[in-house]
Design brief:
Elements lengths: L13 H29 L1 H8 L3 H29 L1 H20 L4 H29 L2 H32 L8 H4 L1 H15 L13 H20 L7 H28 L12 H31 L4 H7 L1 H22 L1 H25 L5 H27 L7 H26 L10 H29 L28
Helix pairs in contact: 1-5, 1-6, 1-8, 3-4, 3-5, 3-9, 3-16, 4-5, 4-8, 6-12, 6-13, 9-10, 9-16, 11-15, 11-16, 11-17, 12-15, 13-14, 13-15, 14-15, 14-17
Length: 502
């Protein structure tokens, strides 16, 4: 991901203006991806009602994007290093725009699921180029300011996604219903394609790693063998082949490890650099990131289902209910990085896991106490507590994972962090079939839907609280102090790329 080229860094005048245009374009693309991850959840009831999607198809609409994005992230970064970041970015944003159009024009749920897979794959080409283009375009002394802007865009994308989805669904522009959440990407994508071809300057890595397409195929196959039975199992009454497939995914994982070892020995370009896992803090941090992704994948989907199906709220009411959570995440994330982690180190992340677990337990209590009569303001306290806990974790976690990784492996390690987060998210979305729908009867009378969804929500949140407890324990393997305070050992990684949280 990092390179020594400074294509625009020493230029001035017109070029100076060009690079700020280029920054605006790539950040808009990153924003578009972030919004597209969160915008879909709020429109799920509309998709289910208008497109006739089953609940397993709803899971695929969300998990398919995360799975394709995760499987292609590292390869997308390498394609940019080999063939040029600008070229692959333009292919990615063009493909993302086409996939968005296909999502918006989908004639049935199957076409929507397939289009979401394509959209995730195109995002995997587009998103890794964003920070690489920034590195190639801006000199080191300006990158701090640029990454600060990038962090603000990430935060804005996370906050605005559900609200934008709610507004577009409520407004029902041109009678499009849920389709407008995808079709809104078209003018943005076309503008990004035209302006990007004009203002972004091409750059490549001087020594790019080779592609590992076999590794990508094995990762994708293993995840599909695990996810497909999880998502479809309940509908099909848990057939034997589903358990065989899930067990087989472990065999595929073992084959992947063996292949990656051979690939590393042959040309030094494996998809996954296995020696990184000998660094205890990195291995533990990857486990934390994966499990955290599982917890978030479960929570955000069941939360939407609970508010809109269980409580019968409109998309706008549900979207506005999440605003305190988003604000709390943003505030706590800023405080954790700037004030708390430099002083208290790992304890801040562990406190975040416990605070988030406390917020989840408080939410279970409130939902049980008020039942179907619960109001948005009564959800505010648990959501703020959860948001504070999440903010204490998400911002400093990448630094903690990378702090003992050798500098020359920083790019590979960063790509792996983002990949496992998305894989965890996809797995969490698959587990919704078990922890949420697994407690709901197939045949409900209209008056039974609300109570059934409310009970399922509380059951799923119990699992999320358990996940936070597991994360707290895993965090004991992270370094006690942040990177700049680690003494001895490997040189700390500097100028790290902020993680793309989706």
């Amino acid at each position: 991901m990092h390179s020594t080229d400074t294509t625009l860094a020493t230029a001035g005048g017109v070029t100076d203006r060009r690079r700020w245009f280029a920054l605006a374009i790539v950040m808009t693309a990153a924003f578009m991806d972030l919004v597209d991850v969160t915008i879909v959840n709020i429109a799920i009831p509309s998709i289910q009602r208008e497109a006739g999607a089953s609940f397993s198809e709803i899971q695929w609409i969300t998990a398919g994007y995360a799975l394709a994005f995760a499987a292609g992230l590292i390869t997308g970064g390498r394609l940019g290093d080999i063939h040029g970041r600008k070229r692959i970015f333009l292919v990615g944003i063009g493909g993302f725009t086409v996939a968005s159009a296909l999502c918006g024009l989908a004639v049935n749920p199957e076409m929507l699921v397939a289009s979401r897979f394509l959209q995730g794959g195109m995002a995997a080409l587009m998103v890794p180029q964003v920070l690489s283009i920034v590195h190639a375009t801006f000199p080191a002394h300006e990158r701090g300011k640029v990454f600060g802007l990038f962090g603000a865009v990430v935060g804005l994308g996370a906050v605005s996604g559900p609200l934008l989805g709610a507004l577009l669904t409520e407004w029902n522009l041109f009678g499009w219903e849920w389709r407008s959440i995808f079709l809104i990407n078209l003018p943005v994508g076309v503008a990004g394609l035209i302006l990007g071809s004009r203002f972004i300057t091409e750059s490549k890595a001087p020594r790019a790693l080779k592609l590992d397409l076999v590794g990508v195929a094995l990762v994708t196959l293993g995840l599909l063998m695990l996810l497909y039975p999880l998502i479809r199992g309940r509908e099909l009454d848990w057939p034997v082949w589903g358990y065989v497939s899930m067990a087989g995914s472990l065999v595929v994982l073992a084959v992947l490890v063996a292949f990656e070892r051979r690939k590393a020995a042959r040309d030094g370009s494996p998809l996954i650099e296995l020696p990184l896992f000998r660094v205890k803090s990195f291995a533990a941090g990857i486990a934390v990131q994966t499990v955290f992704g599982v917890g978030l994948g479960v929570f955000f989907l069941v939360w939407t289902l609970y508010m809109q199906f269980g409580l019968g709220w409109s998309p706008l009411k549900a979207g506005l209910t999440g605003v305190p959570f988003s604000i709390a995440v943003s505030v706590a994330a800023g405080m954790s990085v700037q004030m708390l982690v430099p002083r208290f180190g790992r304890k801040v992340l562990q406190a975040g896991a416990l605070v988030m677990a406390a917020g989840v337990l408080l939410y279970i209590s409130e939902a049980g106490h008020y039942g179907l009569a619960i109001a948005p303001w009564q959800m505010a306290l648990p959501l703020v507590v959860m948001g504070v806990g999440m903010g204490l974790i998400v911002a400093p976690l990448t630094d903690a994972i990378l702090s003992e990784v050798p500098r020359e492996h920083a790019g590979s390690a960063s790509g792996l962090i983002n990949t496992v987060q998305q894989m965890g998210n996809a797995l969490g979305l698959g587990l919704v079939s078990v922890v949420f729908f697994g407690t709901i009867s197939d045949h409900l009378r209209p008056d039974q839907v609300g109570p059934a969804f409310a009970d399922a929500f509380q059951n799923a949140l119990g699992w999320v609280a358990a996940v936070m407890g597991a994360i707290f324990l895993l965090m004991f393997a992270l370094p006690k102090r942040p990177a700049q305070h680690v003494e001895g050992g490997q040189a700390p990684v500097t100028e790290k790329e902020p993680a793309l949280v989706s």
